[in-house]
């Protein structure tokens, strides 16, 4: 959603910068430092990064690459040997034949979200994305002059997306459709049947030039034996799907900044190659060589399995604990590493809706009842979470959710549950917090 440039001198910035949104999670860093200035720690349930070290074999590969002098510019589309490794892994896991010339490497999986909108979306073209969903899909739409088409996901169906739910949002004007399984923030995982159903309506309603951006950043993190499936594996979809992923979540390597996208054609990959030249020249080759080892080493699958096992164990006690808190209701995530509880009962118990309505216009527009609950938790109970608005502003009105990351130690998670329960039963403290006017929006 379009933001503003607070405090900017008139005439300083081009109008377009007010049209790009943001990822609120990154705004939390300074707030955490502010709260921790008295030396007492905040429990971090806000982070979208695994709390595991980078596996040693990948660290060694990066160090070896640095020592060998891989510190220069390199192929702007990605090192050919890494593109080979990506093509093999993506093709093998999805039953596809992937030409490495269709692979583009980026600094993480974020850049391809915006750069695909740059490449495909003309003024007024429709961009379809899930809400709640990863915020950067929505963030870019106004910036590139597209028309946002949020598709609501419903709690009562486990935030699954069906073909019937998607169909009314598709037309000949649809240029890009963002799908994200396993999903941030809901933890939804799509079955092959569900993907076949979604593919059917896409093929019926949209022209062959419509592209599906399948964000598979959490592809390795699925629970209860569920296996990740990609829409690209459905008949007729490989020709339309951009498959995107990264090392960030799978290998617990958010600082490596290596991501990739596989495009339906070489021509499309070459357009991205040129955008890469314009924006980054190239991605650090030592990170890319580490990513190649990550994708190919037999030491990677056991490291991933250990991490996923820890996430599943935490998920089990966190969701159980959340559902025991009066006013909280939480679906069982089947992938990724987030809990996304409905806190409508807590919002009611705290009087957060009325408090939000009473805020000055300017603050109310950047806040919501669940924002107030999240900030109350942060400032008075020292637990950092994200609010519903952080996962798509459009369509978030009247919805009261928090996102808690379970990429945090077990003891911290148990303590966070205790504090959430205390905060939920503290309307007096909440009223005092709102009266203080401390921080009522991010
Ligand atoms: C769904 C989704 N896509 C993409 C990203 C971006 O990941 P990266 O750090 O690789 O840019 C994230 C990060 O939180 C995410 O949740």
Portion in beta strands? 5-15%
Report the biggest beta sheet as strand number plus sense, adding barrel if it closes: 7 strands, mixed
pLDDT averaged residue by residue: 96
| Pattern of helices and strands | HEHHEHEHEHEHEEEHHHEHHHHEEEHH
Task: Please give the order of strands in the largest beta sheet.
Answer: 2-8-7-6-5-3-4
**Unreliable residue runs:** none
Compute the number of strand runs. Answer: 12
Ligands bound to this protein structure: pyridoxal-5'-phosphate
Using the alpha-carbon principal axes, give the shape.
globular
Number of helices, counting only DSSP H or I runs of 4 residues or more: 16
What is the CA–CA distance across the termini?
A: 15 Å
**Compute the gyration radius: what is it?**
22 Å
Topology:
Elements: H1 28-35, E1 43-44, H2 56-67, H3 80-94, E2 103-106, H4 110-120, E3 126-131, H5 136-143, E4 147-152, H6 163-166, E5 174-180, H7 192-205, E6 211-215, E7 241-246, E8 259-262, H8 266-279, H9 285-296, H10 300-323, E9 338-339, H11 344-350, H12 352-357, H13 361-364, H14 369-381, E10 383-384, E11 386-387, E12 402-405, H15 410-424, H16 427-436
Parallel strand pairs: 1-10, 3-4, 3-5, 5-6, 6-7
Antiparallel strand pairs: 2-8, 7-8, 9-12, 11-12
The protein binds pyridoxal-5'-phosphate.
Pyridoxal-5'-phosphate binds at residues 48, 108-110, 134, 180, 184, 215, 217, 246, 248, 254, 259.
